[in-house]
Amino acid sequence: MWTFLYQLASPKYFYQKTGNYLPWLGFLAAVFLLGGMFWGLFFAPADYQQGDAFRIIYVHVPAAFMSMAIYASMGFLSILLLVWRIKLAGLMLPILSVVGASMAFLALVTGSIWGKPMWGTWWVWDARLTSELILLFLYSAMIILKNSLPDSERSERLLAILCLVGLVDLPIIHYSVYWWNSLHQGATLTVFSKPKIALEMLYPLLLTLLGFSLYCAFIAIARARLSLLYRERQQRWVRELFTGEKHDAVV
Amino acid sequence: MTQWFEWLTMGKYSLFVWPAYGLVCVILVMQLLGIRWQRRKTMQRLQHWFKRHQ
Q: Using the beta-carbon criterion (under 8 Å), do A106 and B19 form an inter-chain contact?
């Protein structure tokens, strides 16, 4: 496992290995995403209280989960960059901040759309909603910071420091529904306890969760490979790929 | 036909459910198109760079 991760930190190895898996990743993401959404919209039973409005859960929960999971993974990458100076980690940070921002945006907007018929309002300054909005601001700050500074290792280190500071928001988002009185419902899925959702409703949710995870991984890896190619342009392997006979197989 | 219509109306929540799914699809597709755009841009930049440094 560690050997594999160590090898993956090598730009050439990363580029070659991910190139083999990327089409499969995209295919599986599409299958799980479309399958989960289709199942959730067509076959999952309507909720006894919320009716069909509950079907928004199949896009809202995966987007919210991914917005937090991506930030947590960025925290891990920030440590890799700051402590072990792994360049690939620095390359991934701005890419993941864009994907994470889109997930946080989707979580907020789909939650707002769901909130209107259920709570009677589009928005409340509730702890869960506000802390998720702060997460979107953190992602936006990282995107702005990256775009306002020239491409350099220094800008990536600044991004990593900002990311580590913002990590404090993750437990606040997660526990906000327990710490404060909140309009937002508690967690539907927890790791150690029995799910609070019927199995017919749970299976499509798990599918879309998996689909969103694979989709985000697909987008991040595809973009990282392109950024890597340009960053490593002075290396022999990029020159061989680009100017040699392998030109068609570049991306 | 009636069943199909009932499904489309999503109870009385069609104005909420379909826009939520629509927005998600738009954002997901936009990110996929973003990869194509980045690919084209990267290829152009690399071509320029290799021309200059040959």
A: no
